[in-house]
Amino acid sequence: MADLIARRRALLGPNVPTFYDDPVHVVRGEGVWLWDAEGRRYLDCYNNVAHVGHCNPRVVRAICDQAATLNTHTRYLHEGILDYVERLTATFDDPLTTAILTCTGSEANDIALRMAEGVTGKRGIIATDATYHGNTALVSHLSRSNVPEVGFGLGQYLRHVEAPDSYRIPDPDGQRFAAQVEAAIADLERSGIGFAALILCPLFLNEGFPTQAEGWLRPAAEAVRRAGGLLICDEVQSGFGRSGSHFWAHQRQGVVPDVVTLGKPMGNGHPVAGLVTTPGIMARFRSAFRYFNTFGGNPVSCAAAMAVLDEVQERDLQANAARIGRLAAVRLSELQQKYPVIGDVRQSGMVFGAEFVLDRDTKAPASAYADRVVNRLRQRGVLLSRLGRHKNTLKIRPPMPFGEEHLDLLVTTLDAVLAETPVSE
Amino acid sequence: MADLIARRRALLGPNVPTFYDDPVHVVRGEGVWLWDAEGRRYLDCYNNVAHVGHCNPRVVRAICDQAATLNTHTRYLHEGILDYVERLTATFDDPLTTAILTCTGSEANDIALRMAEGVTGKRGIIATDATYHGNTALVSHLSRSNVPEVGFGLGQYLRHVEAPDSYRIPDPDGQRFAAQVEAAIADLERSGIGFAALILCPLFLNEGFPTQAEGWLRPAAEAVRRAGGLLICDEVQSGFGRSGSHFWAHQRQGVVPDVVTLGKPMGNGHPVAGLVTTPGIMARFRSAFRYFNTFGGNPVSCAAAMAVLDEVQERDLQANAARIGRLAAVRLSELQQKYPVIGDVRQSGMVFGAEFVLDRDTKAPASAYADRVVNRLRQRGVLLSRLGRHKNTLKIRPPMPFGEEHLDLLVTTLDAVLAETPVSE
């Protein structure tokens, strides 16, 4: 272990992030399980990339068969990308009928911002102050914690609005959030930059997945439309049925975005991502910019992505996400009765978690406590993480085939860890 | 065919590039061959992504085996990325010993420019006026033909220098090119922007792979160093033995770059890319910027990339590139004796081509002629393209296992096409 960490440092440089004080050395995966080099099994409650389960046999077979047959770029004609984009866009509402395939969600968001500029002729972008949309020079600036002292990027063109927080800042109908968006639009227009787009995750997953009524985003979306800007929904985490109630989380929010970006779960770990938009916006982008992505939309990536769609739809994993999410909320609420440190329980389908506070009245975030809990769960064989503006909320976002027996193991283990972890420690 | 083109337009939007007036509908690949839907076989003289041959069995097996075992991100410990980066960096000269793995060459170049800014504290970038370094908002601006009317990106921070052209602008020792780089540096410094980096492909492949003596880049590299900037070598096309004489083309140019970016051939079509740099630059970047790439360096990508390295080294494909490249130069020079339209023949290992001119004295580019030749070759079952500032040079850049019998078929077919294609047509 020490040897691996030393090799990482020498070969990859300093500050390459690992999870846990005692990082896990993984060697094998299957379904919702990971194994380490000593043969110990871990329940994976974190990895949304392995959307239809680690090493899903259908996805592996699709990759192997296509890799052995043909893998090349889209300057030749091939059915793979066409069949996939047809199936993919069929899951969206009109007029979201066209797509670009890339390799990463970062690339997709990088294109989406250029689309906004191409369509509006303006550059002002609005995002929340606790978000993350990727790692290119342009989109890395969207994330406040990522803005370095130097760096090409959005810089002056960016305005942050306060991330929604249903636990601390009531905003039942989204009017408060919409007012902030309107103020940021006004500021961008006043400064001469002009407003191009609002980009957000429809479930605000990085922000701590606040509890929101259906249609909550409608007022903000209307403000964006009135100002002539684009609504970009980053569904890299929230899509492909994870929200439980809808295939795409924006559908639950009652809006039809102008651009939807996709990534992580799309190929179950195979590097495929993309975006879906309207024919009008696509035509504007394709006329204003030359864009070609060598690996984007290659036959193997499309085969992997098609197998993921097949699995989600044929095994009805969206319904599973809805059912397990509801159960998880019940089970976590039971723990909340027992442990005052749990200030709030939230869930959006197959994303759920508990927010830790030092005091239920002041709601002071128990961030260090959350860190201890995450590390102790890892020691007991349960893998998850934490997120939110205060990094005090458990991030439980397992592969979609996560079942009742897995939820039971998670909750039982969490119960034991909370019992052995006093807040005052 | 018409149906596929109509579906492409509806699903992917307008202006999505295809090769040839009559695009090829590919369904299968093996070694240096591609097959279309009618079962017709094509000799692939173009695709460098399939570096060790289409559907290379060792690479396919590596992908299948690892995809069935584990595929996850690098926040856990895994030997795959460490073993690969160790093997990869062993092919570089000191002090190029550390790496970041990404999914695309575009992502790698996007990081490289940020590294330059992180190290120098300045933003001025120099590139040639006939280059291409990728498709993110930041790096797409490096390519003059790609700069849209609008667009986030390098904008004011970019200076272009004239692409080297051994056929028209003699510069035997690289002093002329170095003087242009010096002038661009002076201009950036004068304007207050400051100079951060020179980025180039060491073989100037997009520019038409000019004939250059070994060590040709040294004067430009020295100018960069004197000014305190970084030399970024984009070896996305030129690396992994393609130059024939060296594993990395910059080694032939007599320079040790600060950053080397990698892409296309690295995983034989699997989306893996990256960059190699010094520990000092890596540490500066890792301190100044938070960077994480979900798919970057995953076990499957590393297994694919390792299999490519194994193939290149065990089958000594670099030596094959050197041998076939030399033969190709001889065979193309024979055609040059026969056809006055061939103004120049050039080769750099497994990249070779003929430049077409309307008149050998004026050297007026025969761009439309080159287009006709490329399309007629496609009709006769030979796939290649054209490049250079005037798009009048054949771009012959086949998979590395390209052998003498393939070269013979290529030259014989080209001979027949040139015979049936009068310049005055």
TrEMBL record, chains A, B:
Cited InterPro entries: Aminotrans_3, Aminotrans_3_PPA_site, PyrdxlP-dep_Trfase, PyrdxlP-dep_Trfase_major, PyrdxlP-dep_Trfase_small
State any single GO MF term: transaminase activity
Pfam families from the UniProt entry: Aminotran_3
Q: Which UniProt keywords apply?
A: Aminotransferase, Pyridoxal phosphate, Transferase
What PROSITE patterns does the record point to? Answer: AA_TRANSFER_CLASS_3 (PS00600)
Q: Which domain of life is it from?
A: Bacteria
Question: Which cofactor(s) does the record list?
Answer: pyridoxal 5'-phosphate
Q: Which residues cross the membrane?
A: none
Q: Which family does it belong to?
A: Belongs to the class-III pyridoxal-phosphate-dependent aminotransferase family.
* Name of this chain's protein: Aminotransferase class III-fold pyridoxal phosphate-dependent enzyme
Q: Can you name the source organism? A: Rhodobacter calidifons
Organism classification, top ranks? Answer: Bacteria, Pseudomonadati, Pseudomonadota, Alphaproteobacteria, Rhodobacterales
